[in-house]
Amino acid sequence: MTSTYRPPDRDSNLVKARSSIVWILAIVVAFGSVLWIERESGKELIAKAAGPGATAPAQLQASPDLPPPPAARPLTEEERRWAQAAWAYFERNTETATGLAHSVAGFPATTLWDSGSYLMALLAARQLDLVDAGAFDARLSLALGSLAKLPLYGGVLPNKSYDTRTLAMTDYQNRPSAGGIGWSAIDIGRLLVPLNIVAWQHPRHTEAARRVIARWNTAGLARDGQLWGMQAQEGTAPQAVQEGRLGYEQYAARTFALMGLDVDVAANWLHQLRWIDVEGVQVPADRREVDRFGAPDPVLSEPFMLEGMELGWGRHGRELAWRVYKAQEARARRTGIPTAVSEDHLDQAPFFAYNAVHAAGKPWIAVNEKGEELPGLRTLSVKAAFAWHALYRTPYTQTLVKAVAGLHDPARGWFAGRYEEAGRANEALSANTNAVVLESLAFMQRGGPLLHHSEKR
Q1: Would you give the end-to-end CA distance of the chain in angstroms?
Q2: Which of 271, 291, 353, 398 has its CA 20 to 30 A from that of 26?
Q3: Containing domain of residue 313, as a range?
Q4: Distance in angstroms (rounded) separating the CA atoms of residues 304 and 296
């Protein structure tokens, strides 16, 4: 779904000129409103949620085998070594001048999603005492200072990609792009997660976190309750596009609600929900047709596991995440193949894939950003294995962790995973994989979501 771009009204910017105190108070109010949206809005939409092609009624009842939240526990010595290996990635791939981490090892570029992952990794590393207070403060101050100086696309919002050495706007190949290539609402939402954690848990850095968003004109991010991004390609006019599909949309909407933006449609799990049968499990999928709306619709672990570890699930998110997980466990039981699928970098062309429970009308395929199948590139994901284990700690998730335990270099970090067909390691080293490993281990030690508004540090 697209529309003609209209520059947002700068007077409606909900972030500019807010003091730190007002910002924090807004978060308090919004925390309650997000939970209310999930609880109340489903009542009128639940009867409509099935949609064309659904194979089950849309009554969203808790599965009887849904496990209780796991208890906090100390990490084992082996798990601490795993955490140290994940942190080694950031020690080797952070620019000393700007404090920003490379999205992929040796590739001096970052997106807002990747920068959000780095900040999450830093917060988790501090919780796990992998960095002391002085090093943490220095790293965080430098990174926040650089993020506050990023040139903005059209003077409105952060560009989709930047050079970590110079902070210049680039395209996704890290080629200079003077005008930028647009913005991603989903990526911006990802960055807002650690910024909120900083505001709650590290008050000495609250003002620096506020400065990151103080220049943004947020009015263009939400319209009619939905998230909107901007696409800009050479030779064509910039185009506003509705952004986000099931899982990603709700994850990002949680943080935009904290900013006071109207994202009630995007935040609602039931609005675009349909059921598909995968391995005998009724799995949630997005009902919007790919051909009509122009965006791929892979069902995978990423947004479900991130929301659970970082923000905590509401009742709808908890149930839908469990179904996504259960389909993966069911496939492993049927085939004997350890299965944990998510979006991941690749160490070969096309260098990125969505490994899906279901995509493009098929189960268990890998697709590119256009939704085209990538034969032979389905991967057992390291970060999905760690995250599901942190969240559920079932016998199967223990099996997953054992299956990926060797896929790391203690001096360089965790690889993305293992190719199912070839049986060899997918040796891509990325900020996202290593951040999620750190988040998972911190979640296990903490026993709850990393954004916890009552904690003071």
Answers
A1: 44
A2: 271
A3: 2-446
A4: 17
DSSP category for residue 271: T
Cis geometry, peptide bond prior to residue 350 (ω within 30 degrees of 0): yes
Which ranges constitute the DSSP H helices of 366-457?
382-392, 395-404, 431-446
H/E stretch holding 252 reads helix 248-258
Q: Residues 350, 365: contact at Cβ < 8 Å?
A: no
Spell out the alpha helix ranges (H) of 14-155: 20-45, 77-92, 112-127, 133-147
Give DSSP secondary structure letters for 35-69: HHHHHHHHHHHGGG-S-TT--S----PPPTTPPPP
Instruction: Indicate whether 451 belongs to any domain.
Output: no
Q: Is 322 left (phi over 0), alpha (psi -120 to 50) or beta?
A: alpha
Q: How far apart, in whole angstroms, are the C-alpha atoms of residue 166 and residue 422?
A: 39
Q: Give the pLDDT confidence score for residue 25 in this predicted structure.
A: 40
CA 57 to chain centre: 29
CA dihedral 75, 81, 86, 90 (to 10 degrees): 110
Q: In which element (H, E) is residue 232 found?
A: none
3-class secondary-structure state, position 196: helix
pLDDT digits (tens, 9 = 90+) for 320-364: 999 999 999 999 999 999 999 999 999 999 999 999 999 999 999
In a domain, 435, yes or no: yes
Count of structural domains, the chain:
1
- Asked whether residue 316 is domain-assigned, the answer is yes
Comparing CA positions, the residue from 446, 382, 399 lying closest to residue 129 is 446
Residue matched to tokens 């281990």: 441
pTM: 0.88
CB atoms within 10 A of CB 425: 19
359 SS3 class: strand
pLDDT tens-digit map of 75-92: 999 999 999 999 999 999
The CATH number of the domain holding residue 328 is 1.50.10.140
